[in-house]
Each structure stands twice: as structure tokens, then as C-alpha cells.
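Inverse folding, one chain.
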């Protein structure tokens, strides 16, 4: 985990309620926690991270979103995958905070110095900006929750 200041790139996607969103630009009213996942099997790691954040009530002071990143594909394939995810997630609150990004994953990883797709990666982004205050990988631990709170 490091706290060097750099910028989160602007990425576009749709949340699971089919609303177009730009990350982080559409979430600048509060500090933002972005959890990026690359593989379907990452979902339990994302869920545990969000549980840890919500246990400490960070959802009341921060925007928290999950961004499944998927390699750019055909529009038909994207519609199909969105439908599969929507059927799996029934809760409106979770659908709103899940923004699927169909992107060039290599370019995205490079821009954030993400070495691989073996884990989830999380970023704390400063309110009204794209500045990354903290970053980490894997499940957000209680110690990291405290770091986020103290920032």
C-alpha cells in the first residue's frame, strides 16, 4: 500500500440499473472508495471489503463503488454479461454502486500501476478530485479501514 499522489483515470461504464456513470467524476461529492475487480471469483473479496467498510459506517461518509473491469467486447456480449450480473444482484443499492467497465484492461492496469489481475485493488480518491490518497490490494482489512478513516 502506498499513499503517493497520483490520479485515477476517468473510466465510463453503466451501473447495474443501466445508468451511465463516469468514475470517479460522478462521485466527487465525498471521498470515494473504488474497488476494482478483474475476475468473477473476486466477488467474495469485494463483498468482504464492503462489509468491513460498512461495519465501520464508512458508507455514511464516503461513496463506495465496485468496478468490475471486463475486456472490451461486442455490444451483444456486453448486454448479455450485464443481464447475468443484474439477475445475480437483486438489491437496488448494490446495483447502483456496481459500475461495469468494458475497457482496455492493459491500458487501465498500466495507468494505475496494477501488476496483475490476481486480486482486487482498492483506491481512496479525494473529494472533488481524481487524486488517489491511498491504495491497496486484496480484502480491505480493519487496519486499512482505520487508515481510510484517518485520511
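Residues assigned per position:
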Amino acid at each position: 500500500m502506498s499513499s503517493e499522489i497520483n490520479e485515477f483515470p476517468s473510466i465510463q461504464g453503466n451501473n447495474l440499473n443501466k445508468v451511465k456513470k463516469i468514475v470517479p467524476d460522478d462521485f466527487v461529492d465525498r471521498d470515494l472508495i473504488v474497488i476494482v475487480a478483474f475476475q468473477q471469483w473476486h466477488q467474495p473479496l469485494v463483498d468482504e471489503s464492503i462489509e468491513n467498510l460498512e461495519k465501520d459506517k464508512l458508507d455514511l461518509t464516503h461513496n463506495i463503488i465496485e468496478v468490475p473491469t471486463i475486456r472490451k467486447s461486442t455490444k451483444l456480449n456486453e448486454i448479455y454479461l450485464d443481464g447475468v450480473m443484474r439477475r445475480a444482484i437483486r438489491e437496488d443499492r448494490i446495483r447502483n454502486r456496481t459500475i461495469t467497465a468494458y475497457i482496455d484492461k492493459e491500458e487501465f492496469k498500466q495507468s494505475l500501476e496494477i501488476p496483475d489481475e490476481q486480486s482486487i485493488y482498492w483506491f481512496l480518491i479525494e473529494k472533488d478530485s481524481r487524486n488517489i490518497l491511498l491504495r491497496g490490494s486484496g480484502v480491505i482489512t480493519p487496519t486499512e479501514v482505520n487508515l481510510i478513516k484517518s485520511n
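The first helix runs from residue 43 to 55. The radius of gyration is 14 Å.
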